[in-house]
Design brief:
Order of helices and strands: EEEEEEEHEEHHHH
Low-confidence stretches: 139-149, 189-193, 204-210
Number of strands: 9
Largest sheet: 9 strands, mixed
Number of domains: 2
Number of helices: 5
Radius of gyration: 19 Å
Length: 210
């Protein structure tokens, strides 16, 4: 039987081509169903396959694909791409930008868990992860999108560097070097005028997104 779990997460950025990244699960956080995910819970499940990217847990409504899903010290880190040429994928993108939709929920089958009778908290130790959905009403109200960033909104050098760090996973030094390289390729000398740099970033998304 499949379970669903909504926990705090943060989508770091959503770009114009539908790329996004963030955390679909955070270890050690109790959700409204009084469940906790333990580190390592997803490890076996992630070997060899990606979870589905669904709309509201509906198996007949995929809205894109996950390109990278892995555990780190914080939780379940995900990178995905919305299918913007589909009606539902485009709808999800627009709602995310407006922050009208900003919840995330995982669908899974429990393989190993434990239950604390004193706290009434269940700890998920091993699960089969089937899907990670965008949802309207997460069980945990803290499970919300923190920010949706648009390339066209970049107006300063520091914002461009921040975008590269968040959307592309670059270090501060790498982001600064790439911004200066793009500016130099475009012959820009005015660090305050980044209109064309934003266009360059959009055209060169493949350089910094993964």
């Amino acid at each position: 039987m499949r379970d669903y779990l909504d926990i705090p997460f943060k989508i770091k950025a959503v770009s114009e081509d539908g790329l996004f990244s963030g955390y679909g699960s955070v270890f050690g956080v109790v959700d409204s169903y009084k469940e906790i995910v333990a580190p390592g819970a997803f490890a076996e499940s992630l070997q060899g396959r990606m979870p589905a990217l669904l709309w509201q847990h509906r198996s007949a409504e995929p809205i894109g694909v996950y390109t990278s899903v892995k555990e780190d010290s914080i939780g379940l880190y995900v990178e995905g791409k919305l299918a913007l040429k589909t009606a539902r994928g485009a709808e999800a993108y627009e709602l995310l930008k407006m922050q009208a939709l900003n919840g995330l929920s995982i669908g899974f089958i429990t393989r190993e868990d434990s239950y604390d009778k004193v706290s009434s908290i269940r700890t998920l130790k091993k699960v089969d992860l089937w899907e990670v959905s965008l949802v309207t009403f997460p069980a945990n109200d803290a499970s919300r999108v923190a920010r949706v960033k648009s390339i066209e909104s970049i107006t300063t050098l520091s914002e461009a560097e921040a975008y590269l760090r968040e959307a592309g996973g670059l270090s501060r030094q790498e982001a600064k070097a790439l911004v200066m390289r793009l500016k130099s390729m475009n012959g820009q000398r005015d660090a305050g005028d980044l209109g064309e740099l934003a266009a360059l970033l959009k055209r060169n998304t493949a350089v910094f997104s993964h």
